[in-house]
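User: Okay, second chain of the day. Same drill as before: sequence in, structure tokens out.
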Amino acid sequence: MIFLNILCVAAQNFSNAPCLGIATTAGMRGITVKNFGNRTNAALFQKVGLYRCKICHCLFFCFRRELREESGRQKNRDQIKEENIMTTAELATALPEIVTEQVPGPKSKELLDRRDAAIPKALCGKTYPICIKQGSGAMFEDMDGNKFLDWVGGVGVLNIGYSHPEVIEAVKKQTEKYFHTIFNVYVHDGYVTLAERLNEIMPCKGDVKKTYFANSGAECDENAIKIAKAFTKRSGVICFTGAFHGRTNLTMALTAKKVYAVGMGPFPAGIFRAPYPYVYRAPKGYTEAEAIQYYIDELQRIFDEGAPASEIACMIVEPFQGEGGFIPAPIEWVKAVRKICDDNGILMIADEVQCGNCRTGRYYASEYWAEAGAAPDIITTAKSLGAGLPISAITARAEVMDAAPAGTIGGTFCGNPVSCAAALAVMDIMKRDDYAGKARHIGEVVMKRYKELQEKYPVIGDVRGLGAMIGIELVKDKETKEPATELTAKLIQNAIQKGLLLENCGTAGNVVRFLAPLTMTDEQMEKGLEIFEASLKEAMEA
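Assistant: Same drill. Structure tokens below.
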């Protein structure tokens, strides 16, 4: 205000000539200024950022805008206080809390009704009656103000948590430049830089690697198989029981759980399925070593009863099966598969769509394979690669990637600039903050507690995991191992009503998967474990 007064006085003394017919009231503290200069004098004021002779008018609008912005900020603060809206920082460290009589609350119920009226039935399940309003870290708040601890993490998408501020900033900066390029027409730096960085860290075979980007897990798996066929000049594909690779026509054929494929055939020919090494459900009486040998022998039978090895282009396998029941592939079995592939000119594809990006205690689970001398030929990854933005990647040695003819891979949105910006930020954060170490820490705590629960409750048949990717399998009887499917469903519903989001998996739906964001605090983890046990006890007593 002192500056304003000085300028006003200076203007009045500059010349006695009339101004441009303007007499302006500043409207602040009663200051009135008029007759402050001619056109020439006004032009001089332009040099200090003032428009012609309208000095006070211009300053008035500047000050008024600042006041308007501050008024808006105060309004938002008042609204937050009045409506009890949490900031993202508060939500990130909050604990689960249900404030409505039940879930869903009235606002969520209204949105669910609108969903049912507007969205296909295939997407309108009743298992999760939750409508999100905002998320931060490992927590989210629903439309009614209930706060949930998320142990699903977007099914492996949110390793870095909800709404990471550095990812938000990276995305914002990119959107201010441009949203889209189609990469095979004009190149953008983000695609190239991200490919270079993935080439450096991907634990697949080969010294010189190349990377191609798609939009989803299904897309990257399908393109990996196309690349393998182009390189080997063969058509056959081996997949495994329990596998989930997507919902395109080809990947639906690869996916074992046929509820995802009802009425969708015919599917591509040349696909053969071998048993995945589900050691917990190996033939009764087998030791672990005997079980592994059994699964190796069953794989080899395909060459006698399905298709000769000379017709097989690739095997696609999840290092840690997700949908199939959260089952890690035993290293001894992986080594045997690697040898079979090498002996027969078959490419080995590691599907790390769900288990990649620091989830298993390494940046990629295939690092465990590489350390054992069994690195895959091709690695696919998606989900947490872009912190929620759609992007997936296929990486292999250069000679394999270069085998794909022009036009056989690519797509309009593949390697979108905004998604690439997010992925680059994710890589920076995960490396700097040691997210693989976070996964190991969380995994140690949760695994220990789950093992204690296994000793305590006879319905827990098996606990298995790698890093912070853990499955807990519920059975009716530990001897028969009959799946406790209904009990698992009750457990999930009980947990939702207490503020913990869980999800099942496995062919029988009796495995509870643990995929909490790696940003989860120790206090939240302890609260989640407490809710889990309480929900299990309640389900058992029902």
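The chain has 18 helices and 19 strands.

User: Thanks, on to the next one.
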